[in-house]
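Deliverable D5.2: sample structural annotation.
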Amino acid sequence: MTEKLDVLVVGAGISGIGAGYHLQNKCPDAKFVILEGRDKIGGTWDLFKYPGIRSDSDMYTLGFNFKPWKEQEAIADAPSILKYLNETVEEFNLKNKIRFGKYVKKANWSSSTNSWTVDVEDKSTGELSQISCNFIFMCSGYYSYKEGYTPQFDGIENFNGDVIHPQKWDENFDYSNKKIVVIGSGATAVTIVPEMAKKAEHVTMLQRSPTYVVAAPEKDKLANNLRKYMPLKLAYLLIRWRNILRQQYYFRLCKKYPNGVKNAIIREAKKRLGSDFDVKTHFTPNYNPWDQRMCLVPDGDLFEQIKKGKASVVTDHIKNITESGILLNSGKELKADVIVTATGLNLEMLSNVDFVVDNNTIDISKTVTYKGMMYSGVPNLASTFGYTNASWTLGADLTSEYVCRIINHMKKNQYDVVCPQSNDEIETDPDYLNLSSGYIKRSLDIFPQQGKKAPWRNNQNFLKDVFQIRYGRIDDGEIFFSKNS
C-alpha cells in the first residue's frame, strides 16, 4: 500500500534538518518525512573526512536561526558541526522523521490526483517502494556524492605513490613524513595544506592560478564575551546579524571598489608572508574579488605553514605525471609520495531525480527559477540552494520559511496545487550564480535559467530576500494556485 504524505523532504544535511524543524513548528498538521540516501545525517559534514575539514563560513551564520551556536570557535571543524546537527535532531525530536538508506529515483506528478508518486530505492535491499505526497522539498545539496571532479592527467597511471581525491579520503591513510603535492587552490586545498603540513615532510600546493585567500580569527572574541553577560539567544542574534551585515557590506564593497579591496587583500598576504615571498605570482588573482568565492583561512594557518617552510606554493601548469611526481610546463618536476587531487566537485541539480509532470519529463535547465527555489511550470516542488556570497544556511532557513508559508496558504484557501508561471515571456539571464569558478562554468548547462527581475531572479542577497521571501506577498501574480474542482 502506498504511503501518503503532505510533504516529502529529500536529504538530511543542514538543509533537510532545518526544513524538518520549520515544517514541524510552522505547519504542525503537515505529515512529512525526511529521506536520506546515506546511513547518517549531516550531508557534507559527514561525507568528507579529509584532514582539517571545516566550515569556510562563520558558525553564527552557518548555524540555524533557531538554534544558537555555543562553541568557542566561530570557524568550526566537521566533528563540531556534526555534533551541532545531532543536537538539533535530538532537541527538536526529528529523529523519528528521518529514514536512512532511501534514495529517491523518480517523481511522477499527476494532475488528475494533484499529487506526486515518488519511487524510492532501499539502499540495503535494492527494493523499490512508492510514496504519494502533495509537495516535494528537495534539500539534497548541489553536488554528486558519488565522486568528485578529477581532470585527466597524462601519465597518472605511472605514478608510484598514492593518488587520493578529498571526497574519497580514507581516515586511516598515513601520510606522516611524506612529500605531498595538493593540486588545487580552492577552499579544500587551503584547508588540507596547512593541516597535512603538521605531519608530512612537506606539502606543496600546486595551482594553475591564484585565489584570494583571506585570514580570519578562528574564535570570535566579541561573541564569546557577549555570552557571558547576556542570554544565549540574544547574544547569538546580535552576532548573527552583525556577521550578516558585515558579509553583505564586504561583498558590495568588493563589487563597487574591486581594486581597493584587491590591494588590501594583497597587502595583508604580504604582511603575513614577508617581503621575500612572491605574493604577486602566488596570491594575486587575475580576476576581481568575489568573481569567484574567496578562501578563508582561520588565524592565517596556511600563511603560517608557508612561513615555517612546512608548506609551499607553486603556480604552474601540469605537463604530465611521472613515476615520482609531477612534471610542470616550466620543466620543473615536483617530487611526491602522495598526490591529492583537490580539483573540485561534480555538480548536479535536484540529485538527478527524474521529474515527470503528466507524462512529460522535465528538463530543469529549461525552466526559470522562481525566488531561487521553485521552477516555472513545475507544480508543488521546491528546493534549497544557499548563497554563494554568504553562508549556505541563511538561504536554507529562508527557503524553509517560504515553503511553510506556501503550505499554510494552500491549507487556508483549500488549494491543492501551486505552480510558478508568468503570464509574460520571462527575459532570462544565463549567469545563474554570478561566479566565474571553474566548477560552476563546467556545469552551467544543468542549472535552471533565471530572469532579469524579481521574482524570477536569483538575488544572492540575503537582505533583499528577507523582505521578498519572509514578508512579501505570497500571491504575487507570478505564482498560481488551484484546487480540485
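Annotation notes: The chain has a mean pLDDT of 94. The two ends are 26 Å apart (CA to CA).
The annotation will be released with the project's public dataset once the embargo ends.
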